[in-house]
Structure prediction request, 190 residues.
Amino acid sequence: MLNLVLFGPPGAGKGTQAEFLIESFGLIHLSTGDILRNEIAAQTELGLQAKQFMDKGELVTDEVVIGMIKNKLTANSEAKGFIFDGFPRTVAQANALDEMLDENKTPISAMLCLEVEKQELINRLLNRGKTSGRSDDQDESIIENRISVYHEKTAPIKDYYAAQNKHFDIDGMGSVEEIAARLKETVKAL
Ligand code: ADP
Prediction:
């Protein structure tokens, strides 16, 4: 089983690159951002609660996202492997993920961290905001907050995976195809 954590700041290209990896390796894509946006679209209680955090660029509570991932793992017990995109985003989430995967004896294979310069992140997100309808991509102060939250709460997870020898930095600057090729090469070498 191949379980990948696709990691990096907002705008690093995780969703785009996940598409390539799914195709190449036959994995199931679990994006907490997408799951949360589906909940908002369906106007569920969970979605309404999550929206208050997402609109400000803050993280949704660990309890909520961990529960969502748990449900997806149970629902896809026959999968060849998963790409976790936007999860884990805190050390508590990383711990919870390891515990869940431990139960099935299918640990994380690698954490692939896309490295992108800050101004490039802001440009990509503002560009996406023009077409995606995502309000959190349309306001530069919310984007700045998401990037700060990433540095403060999410980036420390690199050390968590480095301690398990599972952390790989990938240059996330360049064309979509170039970055996809770098990721594929790293995964093949695992
Ligand atoms: P991006 O990577 O561009 O910020 P996402 O779609 O991954 O976009 O996430 C959008 C928002 O959803 C985040 O700003 C956060 O509020 C919420 N979110 C997504 N995943 C998580 C998570 N694992 N933990 C907490 N909040 C999350």
Observations:
- The two ends are 12 Å apart (CA to CA).
- The beta strands are 2-7, 28-31, 81-85, 110-115, 167-171.
- The chain has a mean pLDDT of 96.
- The longest strand covers residues 2-7.
